[in-house]
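Quick one, T. Sequence first:
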Amino acid sequence: GLNALSGLLVSLAPFGKFSSYLSQQLVLLYRFSATIINNLNR
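Structure tokens:
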């Protein structure tokens, strides 16, 4: 019931933090590669 649901949320919390961290890294990587590509195209 409710206990299992809260246990599921607790187990998913680190994954949520990890996925948000991962998406931040992907955005940074995308911006970085876009900057490099812009410099190459000059």
